[in-house]
Amino acid sequence: MSDAFKITIHMVSSLDGIIAKKDNSVSWFDTQDVYEKGVVLTKEQIETFVKSIDCYVMGSRTYEHALELSKSYGWAYGNVPTIVLSSRNLPAERPNIEFYSGELEHLINERLRPGFKNVWVVGGAELAQDFINLKLADEIRMSVLPIILGEGKPFFHDIKAEQALHLKSSTAYKNGMVELVYEINKSQT
Question: Which of 9, 68, 131, 189 stands 20 to 30 A from 122 (CA)?
Answer without folding.
Answer: 189
